[in-house]
Write a structure and sequence with these properties.
Helices cover 28% and strands 23% of the residues. The chain is an alpha+beta fold. It has one domain. The two termini are 28 Å apart. The structure holds zinc ion (2 copies).
């Protein structure tokens, strides 16, 4: 996290980079090699870089994921808008009207002991 100066030409360029960063990409996790979705949330105040498992969760699986301390996210797909990963707050869940695909933070499986000791 670095503080940005007031709006400059650099900010305009940054906005384009942000738009790219906000588009979910699928690729291998740099640590464990599992397929994960990476994207930055389109939140101007506190954008979060998300690394999530691509497997959609049903409500029961989401509860288990949250109990395990993983954050869950909405994967939004609009007909006329690009895919985005959005913060999934408890209020949003409580509306019961969310039809988004639900995904959870990626957690690497436990590493072999040799690597943990290094
Ligand atoms: Zn949603
Ligand atoms: Zn991983």
């Amino acid at each position: 996290m670095t503080a940005r100066p007031t709006r400059t030409l650099g900010d305009v360029v940054q906005a384009r980079i942000d738009a790219h960063a906000e588009t979910p990409h699928t690729g291998p996790c740099p640590r464990c090699g599992a397929d994960i979705i990476t994207a930055r949330t389109p939140d101007r105040v506190a954008a979060v870089d998300v690394r999530a498992d691509p497997t959609p969760l049903d409500p029961a699986a989401e509860i288990l994921a949250r109990l395990a301390g993983r954050l869950t996210w909405c994967l939004t797909r609009g007909e006329h808008t690009a895919d985005r990963i959005r913060w999934r707050g408890t209020e949003h869940i409580a509306t019961g009207r969310c039809t988004h695909t639900v995904i959870a933070d990626h957690r690497c499986p436990p590493q072999p002991i040799q690597e943990t000791l290094l």
